[in-house]
Design brief:
Keywords: Membrane, Transmembrane, Transmembrane helix. It is built from 18 helices and no strands. Helix 8 runs antiparallel to helix 9, helix 8 packs antiparallel against helix 11 and helix 10 runs antiparallel to helix 18. The protein starts with 20 loop residues before the first helix and ends in a 10-residue tail after the last helix. 73% of the residues lie in helices and 0% in strands. The chain is globular. The chain has a single domain, classed as Up-down Bundle (Growth Hormone, Chain: A). 59% of the residues are buried.
Length: 411
């Protein structure tokens, strides 16, 4: 692929290569596809909370709610790489739109099953259909990689922005979902999320100028054959368990305190800490930051919510510790995803990132189910030990697998 210079991309002459986020959005079409992507990505932070609240309110069981969401995430983990492979072969627009339609129909089916008190197995079947949801963040990262393939520094900044965008959506999504389900009716969060997902994906895929060209026949080996990729996949899975268990346990803890409606706001603070850390990390690009150190920091900070829940029993104190704990998330994910991009063939980039998301979602599914069980059979405060254990497991997996080296980072 011929390399483009800054002039060929029509970047304004007064924007230096080190201008960070300003330079990113000087790229033609970057603002348009980012707007659509953010709109489509916001529901990702809504679906889990909406489903848990909707099912728990209707059936009175957090264990069932956690199991249903875990089933949907597990199905997504299986379907994700297949959808991503189709995207690499046929292009983002041709695959993402019909896949999103299938996912939206699955969400609406879940809503109807809950609303009309359908048998329990229908909840699992309906939520499994949401597995067709494309890896929206991966689609956006692939566009940045296509536009910035000759500028690793700018690509690092773009990856940091994407992680911050993930956290922003996970910050606003639960708040919006909690507001909708608490103010209107339990199904309002799922209904709104489905509308936003479809609208955002249509806007995103309409931006054809920045779409990476499809490569119908790739001779590159499977991304999993890259150096260090299996270990990264396992590490992503353990990290996902941190996120999945934290979400369900926090909802259960807030409910036990008599403040179910505040659960979204409390979760939002964790995402806010991660979002702020991600933006700073993308601007500074600090030397010496490795995946091992990021995982160690995450494991240490995840003990704070556990201690606050067990020792104080105060929801405001818990919220503050979640804000601090979230600050390790974005640097960890940016560092790990950068390693994935560097070890994945360019014509299988969506597949490679989707495989990592598969690992992440598998962990989220396991963490969601485990956290729901612990919150119901032990106590919500005790259940905060699950995210701590998952974070320590991620660190142990990565440390035991040995170091994965790159020109700029040492894992």
């Amino acid at each position: 692929m011929p390399q483009q210079t800054a002039e060929e991309r029509h970047i304004p002459a007064d924007v230096p290569r080190s201008a960070g986020y300003r330079r990113l959005f000087s790229l033609p079409g970057a603002r348009a596809f980012t707007a659509g992507n953010l709109l489509a990505r916001l529901p990702i932070g809504m679906f889990g909370v909406s489903a848990v609240v909707m099912i728990a309110a209707s059936r009175g069981s957090y264990a069932l709610a956690g199991a249903v969401t875990a089933t949907g995430l597990g199905a997504t983990a299986l379907a994700g790489p297949w959808v991503a492979r189709l995207v690499d072969r046929h292009g983002q627009a041709r695959v993402a739109v019909p896949a999103t339609l299938v996912s939206v129909l699955g969400s609406l089916a879940l809503l109807l099953c809950v609303r009309w008190d359908a048998p329990g197995w229908t909840l699992f079947a309906a939520y499994a259909a949401t597995a067709a949801t494309p890896n929206i963040g991966g689609l956006s990262r692939a566009r940045w990689a296509h536009l910035l393939h000759d500028d690793p520094g700018a690509l690092h900044t773009a990856n940091s922005f994407e992680q911050a965008a993930d956290e922003l959506c996970f910050m606003l999504g639960p708040v919006l979902a909690s507001f909708l389900t608490g103010t209107f009716f339990p199904e309002a969060g799922t209904l709104t999320a489905a509308v936003l997902l479809l609208s955002g994906m249509l806007l995103f895929t309409a931006q054809r100028a920045t779409e990476p060209p499809p490569l119908t026949r790739s001779k590159a080996p499977s991304p999993l054959r890259g150096p260090g990729m299996p270990a990264l996949l396992a590490c992503f899975a353990a990290t996902g368990a941190v996120f999945g268990s934290m979400e369900v346990v926090t909802i259960a803890y807030a409910d036990a305190q008599g403040h179910r409606a505040a659960a979204g706001a409390v979760l939002a603070l964790q995402a806010a800490g991660s979002c702020a850390a991600g933006l700073v990390y993308g601007t500074l690009r600090p030397a010496g930051v490795t995946l091992t150190r990021c995982l160690a920091a995450m494991a240490a900070l995840m003990t704070l919510p556990w201690l606050s829940a067990a020792l104080t029993g105060s929801l405001p104190v818990l919220a503050g510790t979640l804000l601090v704990a979230g600050m390790a998330t974005a640097p960890t994910m940016v560092t790990a995803m950068t390693l994935v991009q560097r070890r994945t063939p360019a014509d299988r980039l969506n597949e490679g990132m989707s495989l990592m998301v598969t690992g992440l979602l598998t962990g989220v599914a396991c963490g969601s189910a485990t956290g729901g069980w612990a919150a119901e059979h032990l106590s919500p405060a005790t259940a905060y030990a699950i995210p701590v254990a998952a974070a320590c497991l991620a660190l142990l997996i990565h440390s035991g697998a040995g170091r994965v080296r790159s020109p700029r980072q040492v894992a």
